[in-house]
Structures are given as structure tokens and as C-alpha cells.
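TICKET: design request
STATUS: open
ATTACHED STRUCTURE:
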């Protein structure tokens, strides 16, 4: 990776049928610095006390969400569909529902990531209502197509 440079105002991560596109803000950041495709246990340890966001509603996202919840202040699952029932095992859905620092946001996509050398905020859009909101965030993990 040393010496590799990428300049872009938009990054698309193609995974499964619905690619994820993140748009750069005017600060000149590269979203590749703070976007993770999948996650290992080591990332969960490094997110202690943070607000963590995960894109995806498949089993791997649910398993990671449960693990992140042990360390993070909050974990928010961003799901494009209306619920987890079509894409996740019921035992994980039950565990997620019973964990107080986990929130599931259906019909929600990331439309922009903001920050300098670190992720500072995400702009989320609800596809059912069209409403957008900006939320503070330190980490973004993508579990689309895993």
C-alpha cells in the first residue's frame, strides 16, 4: 500500500446487487481511510467507546454487530429493507433486539461521509420518508454481499 494514491470525490464499493457509493465532502478526505469492508475482532477492540455504524442486514453484519456492542458506545445497523427478517437468522435478530446499545435503522442508506483525517459524521437518508439526518460517527463497516 505504500505509495498508492487515489483521488476521487466518490467511492463506490460494489458488493452484491446494491453497491455502496460514498461522496466526499469539500474537506478533501478520502473515504478509504475510514471505511471498512467487513471486520475482524481486532476492529471491534479499536472501537471501544465509539459510535459505530454497519451497513447491511445479513448474518455476518448481525454477528459483527453483537461483537461490536461489547466495546462500542453504540452500534447502529443501517438496513436498506424494512426489517432484518428476510436476510438474517432469527436467533441474531433476537439477540440484537435484546441488546440496549444496538439500534436498527430500516430503509436507511449512507449518502455522505464527513471528516478530515478521521470519520466525523455520516449523512443518512431514509428511503421511505426521504428525510436526511447527519449523525456523529467514528467508524463505518460495510457488510453488503458478505
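STATUS: resolved
RESOLUTION: sequence designed for all positions
ATTACHED SEQUENCE:
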Amino acid at each position: 500500500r505504500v505509495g498508492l494514491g487515489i483521488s476521487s470525490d466518490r467511492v463506490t464499493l460494489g458488493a452484491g446487487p446494491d453497491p455502496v457509493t460514498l461522496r466526499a465532502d469539500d474537506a478533501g478526505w478520502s473515504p478509504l481511510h475510514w471505511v471498512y469492508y467487513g471486520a475482524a475482532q481486532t476492529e471491534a477492540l479499536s472501537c471501544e467507546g465509539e459510535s459505530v455504524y454497519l451497513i447491511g442486514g445479513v448474518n455476518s453484519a448481525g454477528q459483527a454487530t453483537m461483537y461490536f456492542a461489547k466495546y462500542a458506545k453504540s452500534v447502529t445497523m443501517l438496513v436498506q429493507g424494512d426489517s432484518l427478517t428476510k436476510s438474517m437468522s432469527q436467533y441474531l435478530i433476537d439477540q440484537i433486539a435484546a441488546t440496549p446499545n444496538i439500534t436498527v435503522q430500516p430503509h436507511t442508506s449512507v449518502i455522505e461521509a464527513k471528516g478530515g483525517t478521521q470519520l466525523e459524521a455520516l449523512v443518512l437518508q431514509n428511503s421511505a420518508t426521504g428525510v436526511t439526518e447527519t449523525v456523529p460517527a467514528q467508524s463505518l463497516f460495510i457488510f453488503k454481499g458478505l
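CLOSING REMARK: Residues 59-69 form the longest helix (11 residues). Confidence is low (pLDDT under 50) at residues 1-20, 24-33.
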